[in-house]
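Office hours follow-up: a student asked to see two folded examples consecutively, so here they are.
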Amino acid sequence: MDITKEREDIEEINHFSHENHTLKLVNSEMIVNAALDNRGGGVIGCYACHKPISSRGFAYGCIQCGHFMHKACAQLPLTINLPSLYEHPLTLFNFGPTTFKSWFCDVCCSLNQFKGFCYNYGKPEDNINFNACIDCCVVEIARKEEADAMKKETRMKVKHEGHPQHTLTLQLKPAAFLCDACNSKDEGLFYICENCGFWIHKTCASLAPTIHLPHHPDHPLILVYSLPEKFYKFAYYCEFCKIYIRRYDWLYHCENCRYFSHIKCALNANAGTPSTPGDGPSTSIADEEVDNLLQFPMSNAFTDPLKLLHSGMIAPDDDDDQKTMVNHWSHCHPLILQANMSGCSSDRLEVCRGCVRPLSLPYYSCKSDGCSFTLHKYCAELPLKLEHQLHPAHSLYLEFRQGSYYACHGCLSYGNNFFYNCQTCKFYLCLSCAFLPKSIKHKSHKHPLIQVIDPEPLCKACNKWSDGMSYDCKACNFILGMECATRLPNSISHRYCKGHKIPLMYPPIMDHPEDFFCDICETEMHPKFPMYYCQKCKNSFHPGCISQFDYYENMVFESFGS
């Protein structure tokens, strides 16, 4: 604290340390010129404390005599009364005219080998001489002023918007308690309501009404002392610590974007202090592998991982060693390879009997009369045994269930096609789930997501529980169901928005203070979950309403010949 802060800058003063001339307020240019003219280019020191005078700012000085002092040193009080230092008043003493070559500070025990000033009490008849250096006294003066101001503040009852029903009183002694503003137990001075159990830190009582965060650059965050009533309908979580926002939490928020943060989390984030356990890098995957992960969402629903896995690996007509006819374990007739479009003209959509996805070259087909069995070449060459991270206890074996169906433990869909299974555990995976990537990158999260099957995970995108496969970041407790992670395309067409696609939007959706309602199911939508939203038409849709998952996509409803 600057003890002379409130004093006005007087242009010219008389000072007891230089009685021959007055001291004038000089600027940095005059100080530099004096150093060049009188000191041979050296640094000018303060006569009182012997510390250098900065070439920036102002000081008091007599240029004629080369007598300069900091403004603060020139304005030191001549007498101070500090019982915390000494029982008697101390007088500002000038060692300049004396013959002493050094003197000793009785407070900090430092030996000062210069003239200058100190505060002194002397009684020669009793052999008493007490010296205190300027620095020690200035610190004590600042403490005394702060304590006096605080005592004055404690005698005042203050009103605060965060507790409008009663006045608050400042307590002088610091204490550790659970602050009703920031919900932390940091020790410090505090305000207390003498009528009820309301306590807040002194620092929390003087929070800035608005702050700007780089995490939310488009709008300022406004301080509120409780969750606004209009947001009571849905659950909201702090953007940093991910903890549930209670109705009476003090918050920094952006109403338009439904952006909420506990006050301490926001201030820590503004200071560069991590507030979230997952703020650091994820350690699940090596950095060099992250760049090779598939990025979701894709332009289309990712329903055919086998095709992507083998695209570019199988050329239709450049392999002389391709077998034109094979006997496959899944079918009783020989299968003939179709490597080009000749003889493949059919108006109906044909699907592979292995993965139940549209046929693409090259594929095998059965040309026996009355039998329309078809199989992608890569489906015909699938490994009969598979080790999979979702079922590490046992190997999975390829099977073809004809005449009955299975239920996939990954996507929960039914199928009567090829699938991998563990007979011991009755664990089944359709081909699409069996060959989904083990790790992915997703637009909604900063870390890679790992494929898991957790007991009843709650998806962070649709807020639904599922027994099936999901993608998980353990460090952040972030999880996406398989459908939300891989099946939602980046944009989608709908008759409500003719001529353009509807993009998949992730919160916050900027500058949309109104509530969202799904144009299909007509229910209000949680604004903190992903949605398909058309800014042009102002249409919004639940992902599950506009892009419904087909739980029978692995079923073939057709009789195949034997």
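And the second, which I mentioned at the end of office hours:
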Amino acid sequence: MESSNLKDVTGGVEDAYGEHRAIEEQLVTPWTVSVASGYSLLRDPHHNKGLAFTERERDSHYLRGLLPPAVVTQELQEKKLMENIREYQLPIHKYMAMMELEERNERLFYKLLIDNVEELLPVVYTPTVGEACQKYGSIFRRPQGLYISLKEKGKILEVLKNWPERAIQVIVVTDGERILGLGDLGCQGMGIPVGKLALYTALGGVRPSACLPITIDVGTNNQQLLDDEFYIGLKQRRATGEEYYELLEEFMSAVKHCYGEKVLVQFEDFANHNAFELLSKYRNTHLVFNDDIQGTASVVLSGLIASLKPLGGTLGDHTFLFLGAGEAGTGIAELIALEISKQTKAPVEETRKKIWLVDSKGLVVSSRKEKLQHFKQPWAHEKEPIGNLLDAVKDIKPTVLIGTSGVGRQFTKEVVEAMASFNEKPLIMALSNPTSQAECTAEEAYTWSEGRAIFSSGSPFDPVEYNGKVFVPGQANNCYIFPGLGFGLLISGAIRVHDDMLLAASEALANQVTDEHYAKGLIYPPFSDIRKISANIAAKVAAKAYELGVATRLPRPENLVEYAERCMYSPIYRTYR
């Protein structure tokens, strides 16, 4: 690509696919093991174009007669498929149609997802992916990703080598123990890594062939699945302790051995006790990232930074109360404390005192410290014990209320009214997924606060009309952060993830919120610009990697935003020689 055209690239607006345009016009050979042609070419999702094969391609690749005579454009295929998908009434049927398309025609799948991101994101990810995981056994058609179970202990490296792609850059791995707010789904949790990696490509621009979804199956404690004759995973109780950590150690070593130092491993939907343990164990030796702890924290911090404009003041002026003290809650709390510490130069031990957590037993206070799990201990401040959320709200008088409990309908009318009684604009974040598990709905937050709340949630809610004014709820969706963050790590060749990179990602996202967005009550930019947003986040993360000395791709590109946009995957069809 000539440098003179670089300024035309805007990564998601006029030119949504700023990938390797330099080679887009060149002819490519659709290699599989040999050159794919004829019937095998139509069955290969990486190269299949359906009716978009040209007359010349049909001749040179033995496709005559295997396709109807019409030759159509990718745009027409997209139009037809979107019409088909919109005809389905149930989101799960839309999900199945999209997954079927991904198995048939990869580039068309990503073209649809990129061009219709706001409409299709809830289909391929939360909330629909939760239902898909619950029903994964019955909608399971052909395996996606790698399944590594206790049966493969001692042979994980061989299993990784069975995967057809060699140049893997991103792995999303789950053990299925805590899928969204739905609990232990065992082997059926595979829907989560598959969905996340589709978003790495569509929103972040990572090549699909560089992505590998993995489920580690160590059994399940879900009795319903153990009794289900159609369950696709190991029918045994979960392995724990030494047996579990030995398998994970073998997995992490095999990944590094097979794919090198710079492969990003994203831990997804592990149970609290394992999530913290794995992150602290591997963060100094591998390029690892936990989306539930760090991704959620980064996107919520961004919303808080952006909301300072309508709220006024600095982050340190606010008092935060969390409902839920697990991975997400403590991860967000720690990142807020780090950001306040960075702004005020106060030690993080001091800034943590602005933040209070409520768990299932009430307010986390110092008198409970002995019995608390280690990740809750930094948040046990001096105070009399308080048994429930409403009393905690009345006592602490927070300006920001954040729900990460995984339990729906906890922000009751009394709680929201209490928040509104001592805050002109209470900031309420109901982050639990899917929608059914949200602590309150957008309508409830706006109605009970008489239209004064600034509200955001983890899953999408429709706009709400209250007293003649339309409020657009923000969605604190990890999809804003992890694709851009991951892409920034890849384009810089980073070998470690540092907390400063998460802060850089949060700030980059908050900077994308314009006055026009604030006027609508938004504290997150619209998803329609997501590739442009991801390119900016990637550039800031990469810049931080170079600054911290953990980037290996040298020399450093002069303009990182342009470089990020240029490297992004494009789903436009290629022409075959």
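Two things to take away from it. Confidence is low (pLDDT under 50) at residues 1-19. The radius of gyration is 24 Å.
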